[in-house]
């Protein structure tokens, strides 16, 4: 068996490539209560006021089925300084909304007291749609996100067009604005898999009946007096679809295993020579130079431990008058 050391500066290269899948999630899945898992938040251990859960999870079928797949988490929160942070009723989930906003600000902005900023203005009230890791993979592909939103009279599309070159970076990863006809209404955070929407930028101040989400109330009213569940239930029925491309990042190391004309022309296999120690491939032949046939390339560490094995699709002839380079790629 023959060995040759790799020159790490010349024979080893790194590569990052990506694989993308199209993901289209219709409202026919997440707008149906039968496909949604609700999380209760009770005021006390005994029977008490149901404050509404912190979030809801939408599945592609009944959550009780072992075959169902979680798709999206929905939640809502506002900052401590929000004008909606007033005590109205025990069921208004006041503390829960603040906790949600602070948690998302801490994760994405790096500070629980920071505020999300859309189009240069601080936004103290936000909906959060979180893509499950099984759908998101390593991240959401930039420039491929669009969300269809139902307004009073039509369906509009919020997209991150141009994000490939216009995205920004912060502690929470890469992010870019979601825009409807040029106006920013939210953000998409690619590595975190989080979509942030401002209800007032999309639906304005909907105190009128055209935006009814729960009973006689619209989202503007529910930010005051509704529970998180009330707001999420309205959001789920006012989002028509969530479409994006996910992305799996493949990190590769490429090893260029070079066999020059003087390398690997002899084999330690005992069958390489006959009983008289003559090389079999030249014995009794008019060919006076040895030949080997490369079938396997092994990669070893500094202590001669075998780390990886690569096979060629057919034996490669090697002789003193030929050279070869074997390109071995490890993906992880």
Identify the notable features of this structure and list them briefly:
alpha+beta; 332 residues
Range of helix content:
10-25%
Count of DSSP-assigned helices: 7
Domain module tally: 2
The SS-based structural class is: alpha+beta
Strand content: 35-45%
Number of strands: 18
* Sheet having the most strands: 8 strands, antiparallel
Distance between the termini: 28 Å
Order of helices and strands: EHEEEHEEEHEEEHEEEEHHHEEEE
The low-pLDDT segments are: none
Radius of gyration: 31 Å
Mean pLDDT: 87
Name the strands of the widest sheet in spatial order: 2-3-4-7-14-13-12-11
Based on CA inertia axes, which overall geometry fits?
elongated
Would you give an account of this structure?
The strands form four sheets. This protein has an eight-stranded antiparallel beta sheet with strand order 2-3-4-7-14-13-12-11, sandwiched between helices. It has helices spanning 27-30, 94-109, 133-136, 163-166, 199-203, 219-225, 228-238; strands at 12-26, 36-38, 56-59, 70-78, 116-118, 121-123, 125-131, 139-140, 146-150, 155-159, 168-170, 173-180, 183-189, 194-197, 239-259, 292-300, 306-318, 324-331. 30% of the residues are buried. 15% of the residues lie in helices and 39% in strands. The chain folds into two domains: 19-247, no CATH class; 260-331, no CATH class. By secondary structure, it is an alpha+beta fold. It contains seven helices and 18 strands. A hairpin with a 2-residue loop joins strand 5 (116-118) and strand 6. It is elongated, with a radius of gyration of 31 Å.
